[in-house]
Amino acid sequence: MSLELVINEKTIKNRHLLLSNYLKNNNVGVLSENEVIFFKHIFEKFYTPDEQYTKFNISQFSSIFIVKDNYGNKCFSILVDNIWYPTSIKRLSGGNRNDKANLIRSLRNAIEPQIKNFRVCIPLNPDDICPVTKKILRADAQVDHQIPFHILAEEWIKNNNNISYIYVLDKFEYILQEPHYTLWFNFHFEKAILRWVSKEGNEFAHKLYSIKIGI
């Protein structure tokens, strides 16, 4: 499919689905000249930034790629002034995150060093067995929380008041402020049990958790 199909879609849900399918069906790498034109049209028409003043002008784009994020998922990334900026399909489709979602994002960002350290200290062996599917992990395995991340996050949020986080322009991300950064970092370090799971196993675990909490 082409990104051109996204332009005339009327709903956020359908645009999100088309963008998701596009990423699934296309390889990591630079977008073709025609697809760049369609992407810019989508970005200009639908993209919803965290802060309005942070939305780039499409004339600033040097290049547009499909890349993999830290969790192994595909996303679009745009090059502006020699800096790569990941661009979520939720924002490209016109959707906004609410305050709770922004807080959760800041919590994920805070524990990213722990995820990276796990990858270094316990490198992936693709021939190991996935604890969820009982099949081999394979090279596209992902780091997962044995106790789901959202359960840990909700427990910590429940016991901490007036949690402060800010939007950092040069990172294009939400960042926890002290003392909450250290409190959450230490809580996660003590409570989280990280593990390698297959991509299929990770998707199944997330779906199972969603069913349990009714989302």
Could you describe the 3D structure shown?
It is a single chain. This protein is an alpha+beta fold. Helix content is 44%, strand content 18%. The protein folds into two domains: 4-92, Nuclear Transport Factor 2, Chain: A; 99-213, no CATH class. Strands 1-2-3-4 form a four-stranded antiparallel sheet.
Task: Tell me, rounded to a whole number, the average pLDDT.
Answer: 89
Number of DSSP-assigned strands: 8
In whole angstroms, the N-to-C terminal distance is 30 Å
Gyration radius, in Å: 19 Å
Low-confidence stretches: 211-215
Strand and helix order: HHEHEEEHHHEHEEHEH
Largest sheet: 4 strands, antiparallel
Strand content: 15-25%
In the sheet with the most strands, the strands line up as 1-2-3-4
Q: Could you say which overall geometry the principal axes of the C-alpha atoms support?
A: globular
Structural class: alpha+beta
How many domains would you count in the coordinates? 2
Kindly state the percentage of residues in helix: 40-55%
Give me the number of helical elements.
9
